[in-house]
């Protein structure tokens, strides 16, 4: 009987200790959450841009429709320079989102696709038609590679501000919500984000 009483008392003491620790922990968590005004909320993104963005050197390129493009035409718009290839699965996956982004921010955004394909131009043109890509596509060249250095993997996307300066570079499949927030911030549209 005394053994049972001792076990019961031990269980009660352990339970009270656990409740006390849980209450103390909850108070500590509440205290750290008091200062949430100074920090971004969970829904608020943090986006980062280069502190000293470099201007894109002047160049010209001909898109698949035969039109000449150059950075001088892009002033006043946010620009995404997307290096991709038809054989690249992540490139293929992000194309529909880029098409939608271009359509939604037509007045503030210009996307330029840079094909890294080494095959025939006809294959790239067919791919562009099949995917209904609505933004200009150019074929990579040494001049483009010099203007946008260090493309080591595909896809790689450079983000340019309205003054055609490179403010961000994304390697790999884009997180479209991040790119959209960057686009909105650079275009001067409202965003729910902290910009660093």
CATH architecture of the largest domain: 3-Layer(aba) Sandwich
* CATH evolutionary superfamily of the largest domain: Glutaredoxin
Number of domains: 2
Number of strands: 10
**Largest sheet features:** 6 strands, mixed
Strand content: 15-25%
The global form is globular
Going across the major beta sheet, what is the strand order? 2-9-8-5-6-7
Q: Round the Cα radius of gyration to an integer and report it.
A: 26 Å
Helical fraction: 25-40%
N to C succession of SSEs:
HEEEEEHEHEHEEHE
Summarize model confidence as the mean pLDDT. Answer: 85
Q: Topology, please?
A:
Layout: H1 2-33, E1 45-47, E2 54-55, E3 61-62, E4 68-69, E5 78-84, H2 89-104, E6 109-115, H3 121-131, E7 137-139, H4 142-147, E8 156-160, E9 165-171, H5 176-187, E10 193-195
Parallel strand pairs: 1-10, 5-6, 6-7
Antiparallel strand pairs: 2-9, 3-4, 5-8, 8-9
